[in-house]
Amino acid sequence: MIEWEETDTGLRAFDRTKTEISIGAPDWRSGGRGYDIERPIDETVSGFASELRFPPNLVTITDVESGERQHHGSDTGILTLPDEEYLANIHGNVKTYLRFSAPATIRKTCDFDALIVSFRDRIPVTLGFRSHHEIPVDTITIPPTTEGLATAISYASSSHKTTGSDRSFPTLRGHPPRFEVGDELRIPEPVRENKKDVDIELRVPDDFKTLFVTAPLAYYLQAEVIVENRTAPVLRAPAANFTYSFSPLPNYQHEVAEMLRRVFFLDCLVRNAGPYHWNLAEISLLDDLEIDSEAIYDATPVEQLVAYDLCEFERIDDELPDWHLSMYVEPSVENVSTLPYLLSNLSLIYLPESSDLNRNELLDASLGDFYRNAPSESNATRRAVAGGESCRSARAENVNSVERINPTLHRGRVHGWLAEGVPIDVFKADPSAYENRFEYFERDSEDIEVALVLNDEEMGDEHKDAADIYLDRAEDLPIEVTIHENLTRDELAELLETPCDYVHYIGHCEEDGLRCTDGNLAVENIEESKVQTFFLNACGSYYEGMKLIEKGSVAGAVTFNKVLNKQAAKVGVSFARLLINGFSIQNALQLARRRIMMNKDYAVVGDGTYQLTQCNNHMPVLGNVERYRNKFELEYNSLPISLVGGYYEPYIDGNKELHLYGNETSFILNSDELRSFLERAEMPVLYDGELYWSGENELLDQISLC
To answer: Which domain of life is it from (predicted)?
Structure first.
């Protein structure tokens, strides 16, 4: 659902997740008959304007009569359009369409700050908006049996808007229906009607383990899942007389992941032969496989599957992105309800395996990460000496420490754990977190509400720096920041029970709760958490964070043990900047903790894929800068979890190619070119082992001195 409003400078459209687009239009006037926009949209707005200023996004312009398409990407040149009728598709945080009939020019400002569409006079235009954030519309009810789960998985792909390789576009898959366990099978009629029959089936052994692992491939292929008395799964396409035999578990979970990877990324390349094509950097990989993309694009899903199976995918596998998300899920009836949310993110699903983790192993793992990331040996040694530094607990012996396990992790950039035990290096999910998110979509407030709590004056530095970050971001987005100090138990409980998007708590945590001025508050004693996301930057806050999830929150950052004040402040400030600038909560914490000695003491609970705010770059990106002879190498890395299958284009002079989300690209720049890019990039950057924000003077000064 999209809402819109007129502003002093033009228009603003926003969805229920508080993701928005602001459009500058100095002489905007609403009204007029408007145009039809024959695309999936949530809302249209018609009016009159002589100029429209958008965020600096990619744009595709289609001549409505001829169907001819033109693109405007990372260049700042002017695209001149003659007097015809056009539909512009603007790729951003909110999908935006612009239809008009007139001569026009399209350009980006020299600093890549805006995309500008200009007309000779004020003319009638129509804007169409669609949210990228979808919610499940229908609910499939199934009995707690393998047959019931197989049926639900078979119908999960009813949310797909197409078949074939275009299903690799994130906007054409849709959110699967909810799964609910009940007494009998109930499939809503719209779900039945929208299910596409692609003549592909997965016949699997009659057990929950295999079904959970099968779900992502079945969802993407739009296959029918059938349980029967067999030892190993088989993929069949009867019309093509095609059969692919898998191994039994546990090897099956790796084979099915490789099959999904093969089909998905080949779809991402083949679809470029269709109407939605760009100058994709990876498209040449098809030449290595001798694949005729135009013929395969027009083929049926079964014919595509057979062609993909016959090609030597291993020849190009290393040139494609790492898989974005892997979940380790206990295959139980209680976790059935989470499957649609994992499928929506196109997560791989593995069976959870782990081993015990003693204190020495944990210390070795933490210090190993720390020294690998350290900028230099002398600096690392200096940082590692923490003698005498105070902890975030007035009585450190009363901290609720957590026994952790060492998870067996497989392919993936980000990992989540939906099973027993508390692992390191993953986010600890909970079924309630996935449903809780929808409670926050119905709030009346359009602002992103941030509450910063300081309950110990000795930690004032983190409090001040975090407040500056939140207030600075509020200049770009509608963020309302409230600052609290020295809260009592009743005041903190009231804050947690009042609707809020994010609470950053700085203080102490002990066995009996979060420290307040008159004692400790145990989260289990509050009635309901109405805090969407949180950071409990205090010693041993894991259990309090899990209680917040159980009582209504979506995701949060916590600690497992005692944490040192200076290191906690370093994590807290970095995390604040990353989260408020659109990074998922898991990616934000992974980056923020990388420069502290005991980095394994921090983790995310709840849905670690969750994003609190939108990102100015549409997708969070990370830069890595290294000296290269007398120049610099800039590695540009997108960090997708949602919208996988999309593409990005770094706005660097001379670059004309787009890249698949998750693939890194690099550029050789001199110091002036690099400075120019960093000053407008608005992204975190690793340089000499340290994490900076791209426009920081300290980073820019170091670049200039080299």
So the answer is: Archaea
Per the CB < 8 A criterion, the answer to whether 127 and 98 are in contact is yes
* pLDDT value at residue 359: 64
Q: Residue 427: beta bridge partners?
A: 416
Is 269's pLDDT higher than 80? yes
CB–CB of 346/160 below 8 Å?
no
CB 172 within 8 A of CB 166: yes
Give 522-567 pLDDT, tens digit per residue. 999 999 999 999 999 999 999 999 999 999 999 999 999 888 888 8
Q: How far is CA 160 from each of CA 193, 325, 423, 643, rounded to the nearest angstrom? A: 12, 20, 34, 14
Q: Are strands 659-660 and 79-91 parallel, antiparallel or unpaired?
A: unpaired
- Residue 210: CB atoms within 10 Å: 27
684 membership: H or E segment, kind and range: strand 684-687
Q: Is 590 helix (H, G, I), strand (E, B) or coil?
A: helix
3-state class (DSSP) for residue 491: helix
Residue with the two structure tokens 């100090």: 485
Distance CA(85)–CA(505), nearest Å, equals 54
Q: Which amino acid is at 191?
A: V
Would you state the pLDDT for residue 277?
83
CA distances from 516 to 398, 449, 488, 505, 558 (A): 15, 22, 5, 11, 18
Dump pLDDT digits (tens) for 444-487. Answer: 677 899 999 999 888 888 889 999 999 999 988 899 999 999 99
What does the H/E/C string look like for 76-141? CCCEEEEEEEEEEEEECCEEEEEEEEEEEEEEECCCCCCEEEEEEEEEEEEEEEEECCCCCCCEEE
Statement: the pTM of the whole predicted model exceeds 0.85: yes
As a whole number of angstroms, the distance between CA 657 and CA 259 comes to 28
Count Cβ atoms below 10 Å from residue 287 Cβ, excluding itself: 10
pLDDT in tens, 535-546: 999 999 999 999
Q: Which residues contact 218 (CB under 8 A, 6 or more apart)?
A: 153, 154, 156, 157, 202, 224, 225
Strand partners, 516: 519
Sorted by sequence, the CB contacts under 8 Å of residue 241 that are 6+ apart come out as none
- Cα 198 off chain centre by: 29
Distance of CA 584 to the CA centre of its chain: 5
- The DSSP code sequence of 624-646 is EEEEETTEEEEEEEE--SSSTT-
In the chain, count of helices (H) and strands (E)?
Answer: 18, 38
Distances (CA, A) of 237 to 197, 203, 218, 600: 11, 11, 13, 46
Dihedral of CA atoms 541, 544, 547, 549 in degrees, nearest 10, equals -50
Query: Using 50, 70 and 90 to split pLDDT, how confident is the model at 113?
Result: confident
